Fold each of these.
Amino acid sequence: MAVGNEWINGYLEAILDAGVKLREQRGAAAVQLPPLLPAPEDAASAVATAATYSPTRYFVEEVVSRFDDRDLHKTWTKVVAMRNSQERNNRLENLCWRIWNVARRKKQVEWEFSRQLSRRRLEQELGSREAAADLSELSEGEKDGKPDTHPPPAAAAAEAAADDGGGGDHQQQQQQPPPHQLSRFARINSDPRIVSDEEEEVTTDRNLYIVLISIHGLVRGENMELGRDSDTGGQVKYVVELARALAATPGVHRVDLLTRQISCPDVDWTYGEPVEMLTVPAADADDEDGGGGSSGGAYIVRLPCGPRDKYLPKESLWPHIPEFVDRALAHVTNVARALGEQLSPPPPSDGAGAAAQAVWPYVIHGHYADAAEVAALLASALNVPMVMTGHSLGRNKLEQLLKLGRMPRAEIQGTYKIARRIEAEETGLDAADMVVTSTKQEIEEQWGLYDGFDLKVERKLRVRRRRGVSCLGRYMPRMVVIPPGMDFSYVDTQDLAADGAGGAGDAADLQLLINPNKAKKPLPPIWSEVLRFFTNPHKPMILALSRPDPKKNVTTLLKAYGESRHLRELANLTLILGNRDDIEEMSGGAATVLTAVLKLIDRYDLYGQVAYPKHHKQTDVPHIYRLAAKTKGVFINPALVEPFGLTIIEAAAYGLPVVATKNGGPVDILKVLSNGLLVDPHDAAAITAALLSLLADKSRWSECRRSGLRNIHRFSWPHHCRLYLSHVAASCDHPAPHQLLRVPPSPSSSSAASAAAGGGGAAASSEPLSDSLRDLSLRISVDAASPDLSAGDSAAAILDALRRRRSTDRPAASSAARAIGFAPGRRQSLLVVAIDCYGDDGKPNVEQLKKVVELAMSAGDGDDAGGRGYVLSTGMTIPEAVDALRACGADPAGFDALICSSGAEICYPWKGEQLAADEEYAGHVAFRWPGDHVRSAVPRLGKADGAQEADLAVDAAACSVHCHAYAAKDASKVKKVDWIRQALRMRGFRCNLVYTRACTRLNVVPLSASRPRALRYLSIQWGIDLSKVAVLVGEKGDTDRERLLPGLHRTVILPGMVAAGSEELLRDEDGFTTEDVVAMDSPNIVTLADGQDIAAAAADLLKAI
């Protein structure tokens, strides 16, 4: 205890001394403690703050984290006893109290985190056990005697095509094997799968269209500003290189990388360009004239969302996600139709007006949480497979921040929008066919924290699918391990050959550096910067390259080296630990590591044996690897935990054997490369033994070098893409073309011809395209080796195809549309009534609904009334909606469509009295619908503690094929939407839940069904631009109301139209808020004021569409 108090006394004295210096410098009257953690709201200021070393912050953190209340109290007692009139003692007493309060707050945060984590893990365990119990019967079959090592052909093909590091099961329906082959099955193999060089390509004869999405940061093809801010990092480089590599893969025709368009004076003008070409289309590259006009290749497509003149951090982009989705939907639809026109035009026998089969995306791949949500919504609307990559995960970040104990959960949420990010990741898991990870550790330790993924349940589901048995409505996405690709084009194979020869070349290069009497040939400057540290530079080099971070465990490496006489005599040690000018000016953690390194070098007297240069450039890194290889050295990564291990792959590319930590990604990497040894990073003796084993045994060193070079291609981009596409083919369900959404038939050729004769044809041909393709100025960012490429010709060809497609899909002119008369699919705009008019008892408020319907009809009347359609969107069933309209005196046949049961059904009243639901839409929303399997689970999970069975019971009259309805007697007796959804996810059920009719009914509908998604379904089917859609909503409503507000459409909020809403049952207070979902200051959202002439105002607003 006494020793502890001496440390506290020293720290407090240091804080006071630092405060005196600050006061002298700033002229302040008192010491002010800086914040323990810089606020990251402004990324630039956060970086600047972190770069400034603060001794006060360092010592406060040491006192708070290393000592308990008794130490602090004892120090305070001592200070009080010695108190006198001196200002220093008074300040010391006050300082004790302040730090004590900080320590108490840290403990309180840690306790709250521990309590929440325990409760959450208990809920996850209960959900996992329940799901496992339901699935246990067939899983027991794995324990049968000796499983057959030769599974039936279908199962074997699937296993060969899709096994990976812990993932789910592919969605393709397989042929049932014969009964006699169902008796025994091989155990599921969870090892990472590597595609052999001889494997047959599954996509070489295809013209695939792939969509990648990465929203945040500054994305461009050349001169990437990596490290400019926290949003522009390795992910930007990864997605750009992935787009290029996929476009170069046989069978892939076009790759679009969708990102946000930024026209801001603070960033380069290139980020405001709508389209940037990344690679030359193959057809154009082969065209000697340079003007093939192909639409293939890789492109960065920038879509506006949110304020165009502001560069927003990723935490501020969440309210603008729906707008990005709508613009992406328009872009992908346009490109799909244009590609269909070019790649698969209709045969002449179909006639001149026949439409081509659209080339829909083969897969939509979202990167990071924001893009994962975009990809989920986009894939749901288009009925195409969806893949996601997390890159960095919100739950993992939340746990790390809470463990630090510096910020309570509410502050973390306000700063990082962490709850919104986690929900986006959960949404991605709901919709994903496949999740790409870098390592098995990411699957088990990071994705395992999520409600939507349980490794044990997923494996049981995989067994059942492989056996052709029902999964009881449960689903878990497949997790696949696909390491990031790397570009090895910069590796000089001649140098590798020379290094491998071992002798004259190596010795000559080193001799030129260390012998001043000989003329030196130009060699990398970094070589001399490193070798100047060594007394004997001829010895093999042990190379460590990392940030000066305690987690990188460099000090243990130094101890292992310093304590081994044999290792010191055999090899030199090179430590590349970032860049520095003055250690005292570095951040606390980095300064601590470097100070410890210097002390250890001095303790073991390692001068002349350890190199630790102060500066190096990124371009120097390849030369550093080459130098280590020329000395017959070894690369070591002794990190405590290494999520992936990119430096290990880089070292292997230069022929360096490696010693790496056994914790994390290096396990998978060395399993593939077989070029080194794994060690316990805490065991200095094991590190020493591994290094000596490689350095002293030249035959082992040579074998590891050869193995690394032989297998390094498995981490190349071509191999990454081949593995990626094989996993997509095995894991994703690709609907047949007839199952995809279809563009409605255009007007008859005679009507179109007459319209064109009247001058309408010119109007149609000049109709503007979406913002992403208007004025398509392709900025080519390809190598100068292709100077003959004509971007103008390619752009002209794309625009021409799009305009031809649009001219056949849309009416020639508004006058032609009016002449045709009423016909859905000919509408130019839509007016959607989505106001939830219910009374406190949950029954439709006929009086208010009548006002709304009359207002909508009167506002929609105008010169273009024939081109405007009407849609009712409600939580009521189809019969209830029809009865409510008739009670208002409105004719249901006046509406083009009724979206009912919270988006579970669409019907068309104009078709007749039957009012049957749209079967095609029913097939569309059936995706992952658990059906009757979830029906009994919802009441059990949805009732609050102490509630009776009747408080949430099945409402049979309101149920339909794709909607389970439950009557809720008392809102206080049921749980909120987010809680029930979380519980269902933990059990493998994927659904949307909506409280409607003033909290008196809970609708459980399929994952792809919702009122906003139904509206987008109609926009695609009828070819209506979402910017030509207006949605009328109330000030409150059902729990899905907030999802109706944002997007590209115009939203009009009418006051005083809703008496009772259901939004109180949406989410808990500690979750995210409506402001994280909707940008209420968007120009597309208009709130009419009380007392305003609503009819006139609404009519004026509708003229804009």
Note: The chain has four domains: 2-112, 208-347+354-433, 514-715, 829-1103.
Amino acid sequence: MSHFVFQHQIQTAELVNFLGHRFICRFSDKTWATVYQRHYSAIPKKEDGKKRFWEQSQLLDVLESRIQQLQSDSVVDVKHSKVQIIKMQQKIQKTSPGNSQKNLPGEKAEMLKSGPSAKKGGTEVVMPSKTHASRWMEKLKREKWINPKKQTSHRTHDKTGVGKSSKGSSMRPGTSTKTITTGKISETKTKGEDSKTSASTTTSSKVSAVQKKSKKKVSRVSESLAVRFPGVQKISSSEVGCVSEMSTQEKLADKEFDEVEELDVDHEIDQQSLSAPEKLLEDKEGNRYGDPQLRIRCYLEACVFIDDVARAQSCLLSYHRQLSKRMHLSISAYNIVMRMWAKRGSFNHIRRLFVLIEEAGLKPNVASYSAALECMGRMPECQTWIIKRCLQQMEVDGLSVDDVFRQCVFKKDEREMVLRAVRLVHPEYQPSVSKDQPVCSLPLVKQFYAEREGATYPKLDFSLKELQDRFRLQLGMEKATTITIDSVEALKPVTENMAKMRELLATQRKHWEKALLQTLKEKKQILSSNSQKSWSTCIYPYLSILDDQDYVNIMLQGLDKLSPSGESLLIMAEEMGNRVYNLYSIRQKSHSQMIEKLGSIYNSYSELLANDTETNGMLPRECWASLEMQRSSGPSLLSDDTPWPMVLMVQLGSFLVDLMVRELKIWSNILNPAQEKKLIPVLYHMYTFRSNHKIGFIKPHPIVTQIQRVATETKLTFDSYVMPMLCPPVPWTSPKSGAYLLTPTKLMRSTDGAIQHQLLLEKSRDEDLHAVLDSLNQVGSCPWKINKPLLDIIISIFNDKGNDKLCIPPPLSEAPEVPRFNPHDPSYTQVEKAYMKREGIKAKKKVAEMHSLRMDALYKLSIANHMRDEIFWFPHNMDFRGRTYPRPPYFNHLGSDVTRGLLLFAEGQPLGPKGLDWLKIHLVNLTGLKKRSSLAGRLEYAESIMEDILDSADHPLDGRKWWMNADEPWQALACCMEIANASRSPDHTKFISYFPVHQDGSCNGLQHYAALGRDVIGATSVNLMPCELPQDVYSGVAQQVEEFRARDAEKGLKIAQVLEGFISRKVVKQTVMTVVYGVTRYGGRLQIEKRLKEIDDFPKDYIWDASHYLVKQVFSSLKEMFTGTREIQEWLTESARLIAKSGRTVEWVTPLGLPIVQPYHRIKNQTLKSSMQNLSIHISHDANEKPDSMKQKNAFPPNFIHSLDSTHMMLTSLHCYR
């Protein structure tokens, strides 16, 4: 019987024991009428003892019957020999409709009969009326349909070793169990000796039967291990912690019910959501990926990494010995410890772990046998017949030696040790490696992959030696995990006060570093002795996986990046934990000795890209995979390390933040010696409110902030993955391998802790992902360089108080002063105080925004300045919808106008006869003018303003400044410079241009909807149909809205009259563009409100009314222009609603074979206790929670369109290989 039913039995039995179990009585009409009615009186009434005694006895019988019902999977087979049932009077049948749907006591009693009528103890049992019978038959049919699904779910849940029999006979010796009987409850304590039980004869016989089955199970476990490993002796029942055995009731529950009642759609979905809860996430080998499983595996891996054998073994055994915890162990947890003992050649420990695996009801996989063979290979003298028996058992389990070498991830010399053991039995054995790579056969790209004979792919403009040198530079940067670069603010002249503050800050850093280092060592020593109490909360192993200095550097880096306004404790802790994890991942790769193999493969891979080698018809993915196969010996390049869950990173990060808050001190009079001298904290832990939630906040002391602001540091420290790569990225060959050399990178980026996307990718066939991987490789293989003349102009403006119009944020010295006043000053009225308070809040918000924008620009410009003489690459990955993004977050080609203007292609191409004309047309597009002009008209306009174009290129800051009025000013200025250089060259057709032209679709979301709905009118407005002039949907919507406004203004509508002359393309563009991606009227109103605020002449008092009016008109215009769009959106939304209501997430596969799942689940609140505060973590991606129906249905239409959008982009990049 399932564990779920067993818990209900205990609860019910405890209630029966409380009421007493001495009487067997009859149900009466009067009694149940009393139970279902409530009478209230203000006058205390003396309790009727006899009546209360009678009611308790009746309730006792009902509960006893319920026990029997729960103990049987088929309710019609339950029999109770002691309960006499009499006919219920019509009075009960006349209950209200609400009560008629409930399980009335009389109805429950009738359910205990196995036939239409029977005699028990001489009492005739009468069936209830037809009304009751039909109602119960309907319920029975429904339960027959639900129960098998529930039991299937419970059996899957119990595979990891949860005791499946509710009788408790298979519990581990030394535990306290409760045996449930039909009449009495007794507590049994098993202490390795004969236990005394008090139970009915029937229950005793059942317990005895289960005990016999358990002994047989123990015998089978012993015999199985004896076959697998001959050194294992038979195991007695006292040596086994727990052996799971399916109860008789569960076997009966395995019957399939053929009768399924026809239900309407919504009702059927409701039943499915109840009977088919989502299973825990599992990988291809059946390893569970719930949060507890991840925490255990991470802990064991950390213990193995620091070579703490005893701690890892104790942790595993502590979970294995308790049934309630054993369910969290998967086969991978046992394998981690098994590999640890295999390194030591301890065969006895390997055998014992196989015993534990059998006890847990798990099946050894290839990694288990690989560890066993590795151990045999390390033994000085291993008898060959033991190895033979092991290989024979592998065949019995459906595994082969080739599977071990193909599927397992090896570290150091593990592969050689396994091969050594196999060759002791089969001296001539060679691992078979398939050199034939599967070919993608998706219909959309089948022709692309089929017609490749004789095809060649372009090479980079680098020699083989240059690429190999670049690889070594990138490898060194990633090994260091951080990089320190010069800040562009260092170009400012250094004042005396600035130099003084820099020296002071450097001195303080040395003191802080020393204090943190000493405190960390003390804390680790304390945790080392106390960490055995709770494995789930112990962080000692995670504080030992790196050097102490590494943790101190991470803490000081966090202090440097802290904003003057502070940061959320949760965010700060997660960032620090993530830095520890990244550094730990790189250390693991170095420890596994795979870096040497990586260098060898990359040097050979460079031959495919270098311009001084022979051409090769292989794609980068194919080339890299082929090289891996050729170098199959030694450690694997892939890593099987477990990703850290978000809770773990927050737990570790909060510990480090707590150290900083407690230990970092500064003298209070460091800036003013006249003040009292005392040590004060550098960081303060405080609380603030965000969206009515109180959250912890870490804020620096104003003295520290002032020192940092005046010092204007000349150095910036970044994580290595923030920087572009100095060599071509590693091509994506699988969901686990690609992008950076050492830094862990997900193929599909997701919310921290969400792993369902990665598991879904890993379960896909390799060839189904080839098109997606090849597309990412193509986009990431493009080299870039910096537009140095433009960079110098931007830096000069940045260091000269910035320019808001040109999107160069000013420094904090230009921020508005925060008004200060004494709220207790009687000279201020309440209205004045409220006004001053509002102004203070606005000023603080403005300062915070200015600081954020200033630092973002500082990072971008500093990285660009650092890379000004380099050639670099942007590795790419994608979001869960398939949209591709560069991995470096600050500086990339998908950034703002500033970063796009700063980037040039590293490899140029001659313009040719039409190239210069296309540059001029592109410049006009960047201005935002001539949207409805033909290409010829735009070229003619460009020719008419050539003087302004050349003046902008020659005198960008002191000329006519025409470029500053463009929609994209910095890209426009870069284009002006390129046009000037090309037009002044001797032959513009041979001019080598490096200028990138960014292309964008005409409201791409509407394009997809128009194509899906075959909407000709809508397709024409978004340029999907041929037209004489380019169409602009935003101008069309603006024109339609203006017609609506004019009509309403004639009718006397005030707001329509106010809006005259203010409706433009810019006002409605963002709302039109995002409507197809699910924006609501509320969100659209905020977008229009923001645009109206940017218009200086628009009356501010009418902004709310105007935005409310305009968003209504925009939605109406789109409804008229795109007839099918809304219908398709509604159909997609309704489909997602029904799917989510059934208890499933919405999943689909793109035309390029990319599997997609929406990670929206009900929020799971998890509280993490730390010494500073209890952190409340809201997890919305836990796949074990029910789907969030609202998010699932609202997000599906835009996500689906985004997935189609990404498919088109990937197809384009694939054909760029030609």
Note: Residues 830-866 form the longest helix (37 residues).
Amino acid sequence: MASLTKHFTTTLERVEIFISPRYFTEVNLYGRLYPCKTNLPTLTHFDSNGRIPFKEAMEIGNFTPTKVGASFGPTWTTHWFKVRVDIPESWLGKEVHLRWCTECESMLWTSDGIPLQGLSGTERQSFIISSNATLEDLRQTFYIEMACNTLFGSGSPNMISPPDRKRYFTLDLADIACFDRQVYELIMDFEVLYGIAKHLPRSTSRPFDALYVANEMINIIQKGDFSRESYVSAKELGTKFFSQHNGESQHKIIAIGNCHIDCAWLWPYEETVRKCARSWSSAVQLMERYPNFRFACSQAQQFMWVKENYPALYEKVKYFVAKGQFIPVGGTWVEMDGNLPGGESFIRQFLYGQRFFQQEFCKRCKEFWLPDTFGYSAQIPQIMKLCGMERFLSIKMSWNLVNEFPHDNFFWEGIDGTNVLVHFPPNKTYTSTATVQEIVSAIDKLADKGRVSCSMLLYGKGDGGGGPTGDMLERIKRLHNVDGLAKVQHGTPDQFFSIVEEKHVNQLCKWSGELYLELHNGSYTTQAKMKFLNRQCEILLRDTELLHSVLLAACRDEDKKAYPELELERLWKIMLLNQFHDVLPGTSIEDVHKEASFYYKEVIKGAAGLMDTAVRRLFGVPEGRGEEEELVLVNVLSWQRTELIRVPWYKDEISRRMWIEGVGKAMQNVSNEAGGGTLVPVVVVPMGYQLLRGLSAVKAPVHFEQRKDGSFFLKNQFLEAIINSEGCVSSLILSECQKEAISSGCVGNKYVIYDDIPLFWDAWDVMHYHLETGRNAIKEIIEPLKISEQGPLRVSLTFRVKIGMNSEMKQKISIDAVHPYILFESTINWEESHKFLKVEFPVNVVSPQATYEIQFGNLQRPTHGNTSWDWAKYEVCGHKWVDLSEYDWGVSILNKSKYGHSVRGNKMYLSLLRSPKSPDAKADMGKHIITYAMMPHSKTFQQAGVIQLAYQLNYPLHIFPTSHLAKPGASHYVTNAHRVLPLEMHESLSWFQVSDPAIVIETVKKAEDRDDCLVVRMYESFGGRVHVVLRSCLPIQKAVLCNALEDVVESSLQKVKWKGNNLELSFNPYQIISVLLYVEV
């Protein structure tokens, strides 16, 4: 019956107090949840300090007595406990729990080393020893592995602060207790009734119905003195309420458990391995009790960690994958950043991820799963589709700071026109707890009312692990079909997307271009070392694969196994791990970035070793010096290029021959400070090699003049520049059209420093108001501008200045005889706090759009702030170049390791360094080497060669000595461990080239599953349609098209023909095409 008075609030609070774990527990229902408790008879402890396996802990553990109330630490240490359980015989037939509560994370193990369940502080404190205790259950021994960190690390004073390394954690609870399942069922009934009463609108009768039912249930229990009979009667009343079902028109929510675990963030990689085990073992426990429970899990790397470190748990995972309860999603190696990785890195995330899931579970993932990444590149839709996916899920766009994203279900169109289906769960989180409030909120916030009839609910503790709990599942059970609420049912991502595809695709809107997150845009710049090392690794792995692929094609069949496939895959996976969305963006603690730096250097060392092996086999690189030695120049790019190279002085014979041949041609000595040697111009064939013999002539030598005001005039065949005494560019004229690139009254290469104090997310965010604080970064000239290198091929100026309060910069400004840009090379010792350093170029260009390189293409963004969507893009991501152009004229900024950009009006900015203090107090402190270039051009940036020159800046020529002189018609013999392989050596040879400059060969690699196939991946970079010819001198038999997972495109079998040494292909704008080339055996 209804309460005797009509006071909604007091009645509601009565219900709340009746099930409160904090108030009146001596007389409320919650206080009867554990009616019987007893202490553990023995509890002993072993401080292992480091993270060690169970077996090792048992072998070396010296367990000594401890007790509740003791503290353990410090942060990042590990402690093991031996727990003996003695269940009283009076508890036979009862449900018995082991209860354990600390402020940190723990794992419960059996005595024979089987991981049972995570025990994660307040989130999960109990383990069901037995649901119906028998004699066999009475005496048991367990082990508990305590990790001295919380779910979110150990930051102090707040979550994202650097870890408190001296923190200790208290053992607050350790006992066994009888669990009253009947009381628990009632508590969950009350909780849901309370939620309905509190959160449904009072304009309907339903919240009143729920409140009065709950109120009467309390009366029944209290009048019955909490007897079993009163529990039964109250339960019947609640069941009757929940049996009142919805109509057919109610919205359907597909509830999917998940446990988003950051591979590293506020804790190191090694702790994530244990977080996966704690979280997944808990999920498996729930699957055994709730057969309808579905749990989605991404990141093949984490599956691999569990497989390698917890084989017994992994077997359970495989069992539940087969049952359809444990659902692999995402298809990538990790949940990577969505903007910073290169295009080929994106593809390898899918390639290695999908191959893992196929090999382990005989299925590929259907849904791309990036719930927490900081924005999404406009090339992702095409990459997804090429990797067999046309469905995408995220929630991160709900974090937009300025504009509310208008869709929850929509088609996302990439720069090539590819469309994929997208869902953003309307309650805007992947860590729902499945409460009534969240169900109501999901419908209130649904952006597509009337267009779709279903949505996803992602529930489970996330980021630091934890996952779903029994309470969440009990709520979902009661919310299955309750009048007044959306229908909630367990399901899978595939079920959800299938419903949308079958019923709602014609009602969905389209979003074209990038999904730009209006937050976390400082992550394009934070931890510059991560970005620098990542790009180095991407380049080196690509080049190494190319050389080994050429070697494979030239080898005889029995030698093709020499291709270092496993080692290359290992190195790729290390780099892909570091591209996780809190590592590469620079938003992790110091320990993580130190570890990531070590991993990057391991990749660099490993790839360099593999490249050395390939070079020795291809070119016969000598072990020592000799008169027969020559230099081989290797161009890894698919077009002919002109460069300056430095020949070391110790190559005496080479230098002597060059000086003889170079009479009358431009040559230049290089100082010892710059490495020493001889600077010479060369022209190298596309994607191939060339012996350094005849020298290339230059059209005009470089010229300079020093002026009385301390400025310098520099000139080459392309440019005329004036560099003022502070190292700024006061004039830059493109010779061919005599147009001035620098805006009147302004200077380029101006270093600007900003105050950089975000609202909360320190390493992540740069706020729009930082733009109001910009000022000249140079505080003092330490060494004035001077000539540091001069000659017909290159002139360099250097100066040294104090920047900011505590930092120093030395910069070299160069102009040479072969490149149409000014090159800036800065060495900065950065010691600032909450400052942001940029370099500014005010240019003589008017355009409403600037163009930025992204993966496999480019993207335009506004230079104005007409709308909130426009001005919110005050800091954006680009890769190797950005261009601002008007008709027939423009300026580009090229770079070697930077990603943060901004173009506002006619001012172009390259973001260089930040200095946040959390979660890493030392972020970006220390030495940085930064390289960028300013390039004015006529015509379009495509016609001017901006794309190619940016590649060349990042992909230098490789220079190797060879001991085999090439003579026309001569054979070159390369020795390996098995046999001598004849490879014809020429003065120059192009392995691959393409007939149109719009096409870039991005990758040449061995096919994953065949030793007689190469994969050549190309893309159209200009944004147009083109018909091209791919040529190769390698022994190719046939060609077929494949997708990015290297599945043959069946429709191409009749259309694509390898004729002679040619393959004709047609590209659409920004299209990526992969070709399988079968080599002769």
Note: The chain is about 25% helix and 30% strand.
